[in-house]
Prior knowledge:
- Belongs to the LysR transcriptional regulatory family.
- Pfam families: HTH_1 (PF00126), LysR_substrate (PF03466).
- By secondary structure, the chain is of the alpha/beta class.
- The chain folds into three domains: 8-84, Winged helix-like DNA-binding domain superfamily/Winged helix DNA-binding domain (Arc Repressor Mutant, subunit A), CATH 1.10.10; 89-162 and 265-296, Periplasmic binding protein-like II (D-Maltodextrin-Binding Protein, domain 2), CATH 3.40.190; 167-255, Periplasmic binding protein-like II (D-Maltodextrin-Binding Protein, domain 2).
- The protein is 43% helix and 20% strand.
- The protein has ten helices and twelve strands.
- The chain has helices spanning 8-20, 23-30, 34-48, 64-88, 104-121, 173-179, 200-208, 225-233, 243-246, 278-296, and strands at residues 53-56, 59-62, 96-102, 125-131, 145-148, 157-164, 167-172, 194-195, 220-221, 238-242, 252-255, 265-271.
- The strands form four sheets. A five-stranded mixed beta sheet has the order 4-3-5-12-6, sandwiched between helices. The chain has a three-stranded antiparallel beta sheet with strand order 10-7-11. A two-stranded antiparallel ribbon has the order 1-2.
- Helix 1 crosses helix 2 and helix 1 packs across helix 4.
Amino acid sequence: MNIDKIDWNLLKSFVFVIREGSLSAAARALRSTQPTIGRHIETLEDELGIALFTRSREGLKPTEEALNLFPEAQAMAGSYQALIRKISGENQSHTGTVRLAVSEIVGIEILPPLLKKFHLQHPQIKVELSISNQSENLLKREADLAIRMSQPKQDALIAKYIGISPVGLYGHKDYLKQYGTPKHMNELKTHKTIGPDEDYAFLELLKSSQLNISRNDLFFRVDNQIAQLQLLRQGLGIGAMQIQLAKKEPDLSRVLERDIEIPMPVYLIMHEDLRTTQRVRVLFNFLVNEMSHFVEQ
């Protein structure tokens, strides 16, 4: 195994292929091309003397050796990105880059108008938006800030409680006109419902809440939360949605309002070492204010 002169770009491509799930997705994330990422993986395998992925019609699947290497390689990627962000702007400057990790719903449905407002106030601060339902590790500096729906337990992380963003059940007016509106909880299982496929945290929440719905009860299953919303908006069934977002959807009607309301806490999180980094603190304070207004609607 020749590890003395491994090119960092090879490791970076390795990390992104595992993180994104395919060569093409990694290429998009790295603003590269699929053949280039493929050559990086082949070169890295040659230099390490091990197979990192098995290839099939379904795509690339990481080997056991690759999964063993991934945590350390990912930590290196986080440190590298943190270094780049630090070089791009001094700590006491309102310039530079801040990496913000958020879920799909927050990143696509909530943040864009807020970031527009932030950019008008602070045009010299660049924002890297990492949109994923997989939590990036702030301890390893994979992100500077994160908006999460659970409180972190690590002492090195500063968590600001924003408030509760409640979730209710909704159906499109066309769906409810065709199939009727459930009046009681026991009627819900006779309806077509929309929810996660392998998002086990979400599935456990559904099962343990008043809903008591299991994976097999769901008619349409997909882990991508934006896809769930689109299925709901197309009238394919009844699904969950943050009440604040649903207020902007005139074609959606809330169902079982008296029976179902899932409280979802919202936290804004950063590493304690970034408290004095002005560009991070500026975005942190801005998001505390704007997200507080959102949950109070």
